[in-house]
Automatic annotation (TrEMBL):
It comes from the Bacteria. This is Probable membrane transporter protein. It is found in: Cell membrane. Pfam families: TauE. It is a multi-pass membrane protein. Belongs to the 4-toluene sulfonate uptake permease (TSUP) (TC 2.A.102) family. The chain crosses the membrane at residues 7-32, 44-67, 79-112, 160-182, 203-223, 229-246, 253-271. Keywords: Cell membrane, Membrane, Transmembrane, Transmembrane helix, Transport. Coiled coil: none annotated.
Amino acid sequence: MTILEFSLLIWIGSFSAGLLGALTGLGGGVVIVPLLTSVFGVDIRYAVGASLVSVIATSLGAASTYIKKGYTNLRLGMFLEVATTIGAIAGAMIATLVSVKALTIVLAIVLIYSAYLSQRPRIEHIEDEVADPIANYLKLNGTYPTPDGVMSYQVHSVPMGFSVMLIAGVLSGLLGIGSGGFKVLAMDQAMRLPFKVSTTTSNFMIGVTAAASAGVYLARGYIDPGLSMPVMLGVLPGAFLGARILTGAKTQILRIIFSLVLVVMALKMVYNSLIGGV
């Protein structure tokens, strides 16, 4: 395979990852890392480095559209980003001390759990509920557009959401996946935000989290420009496209396909690690 063919195949895979990441809020890294390691045989640490770059590109590509349309809760995102940034730096520090096989097993578990998260039903809007006192004090409540007009929503369980975000940050720095699944879980299940607010705010946050840990990978030489460039060039237009179609798209079928892909990649990575090596 020539360098041009290699770069083109990575671009196609990265474009799909950016599209799915923008639509689901899980981040394109959940596809990028297993794609590079299982299909192209890239060392997982270099794959994580390229994935962190792609996660930043996904966030940049989707966040601007979501903010303009009024879905993203910027105040909540910046508050929760304190926890994810601390966790991301810690995860990046730990990553170089863990064996490649252990990293692969952990990533496979996260992939399967992300597939489970993407299939859980979520309530779009909850009416007449009292917000968390901390949310009121920090002014974290907000509104978002719906077919019936602009709806308001209340933020709940701020301490629990903050704790889950800390874990999400560690996973992001350790695995380079953006940990969007855990961020969506924290906002959608623990904090009970509308689904589209959760996914769009997650897309806004994953770029900041990835940037915090990408510096550590760059300093240690795990970001290869020749690998990261086609990944970023593929993810960015995919994220822009995903952001444009999210508002009117029915994503249930997409989530089913996405979950199947995640499970297959997770099983393949476990097999390669335990039987054939990554």
